[in-house]
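Revision sheet: structure tokens.
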Amino acid sequence: MSTTRAALHRKDTAKPGDLYMSFELGDKSWKLTFGDGGGTASRHTVAAGDQAGVADCIARAGKRFKTSARAQVHSCYEAGRDGWWLHRWLTGLGVDNVVVDAASIEVNRRARRAKTDRLDGDKLLTMLLRHHHGERVWSVLREPTASQEDERRDHREFERLTHERTAHTSRIRSLLVLHNLRPSVPIGGRYWATWWSRHSEQLGQRLRAEIERELARLTLVKEQVRQIEVARQAELQDGRQPAVAQLMRLVGIGARGACVLAHEVFGWRQFANRRELAGCIGVAPTPYASGDSHIEQGISKAGNRRARSVLVELAWCWLRLQPESAMTMWFNQRFARGGARMRRIGIVALARRLAIALWRFLRDGELPAGARLKALPS
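Predicted:
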């Protein structure tokens, strides 16, 4: 099976007479570079987001290179702030488009290398041609459906709001310390109004007004966080999130961690083996072996940072809440007796094993060895 997959990957998909196009996407303008596989290139500039302009440039490039009306158009662009709408629009036009990971594009290692939009466009066009001749030159991203992409919005907004909530709370606490006020109750909590009414008179008028504006923003953020949590709970009760509900059956995994893993990794991505999964999350090892030099550089930290961060948090929870599981026993035997540094190394290794175990649990229903499930509500 792996031999067949490798052979298909090396298959030459380029055909004589096809048109190739690369996008260099900017905030105000886009640079389009066209070629037919020969030595010449045609360059065009359109306003950012100008779909009619892109379609017109494709037609003009086809006339210049004298491609037939049935010729296939191949294109590429780097993943960035424009997301997937451009890919879906190009695919709807019949263009064979690929979205590539910008970090996987090879660059010149000279200390001072020339870099312009024109050079970047030419480079992308050259690599697109090599890609269609079967070379492994970059990492092509897998496209989520529109609904799968939309499902990621809630937990990403929740993450941003929780950071904002912490920022407002820390700011209020710092302003109070200027006058040696240290609240004995949670800021913005149930008993905050009573505490604030007793101590606010000690502050100057402008400082008091600034803190009250911070409190208003904190109240708004808390309300938005609550709305997201209520909507998430409603979806779970209605059975609209089966992958999240299945992950939450395991002791030690809550709604937040399950949502991130289901919508960022397990909900729509397909993995052939555990190495692909580890590479997607960024917990794969990065060896450096050249001649007699053999160095282990640690994990790659590529891929999805949200899933990687959540998995490390869940790994610590797993040790505490799943003490009889095989993964916890493995960690305790190998890393628990070491110092803090060894435990930090071990927790990343445990996070990798946990990701693989959860993937198998969702895919095959295989319960992690020794793991406990939550009691079903009566």
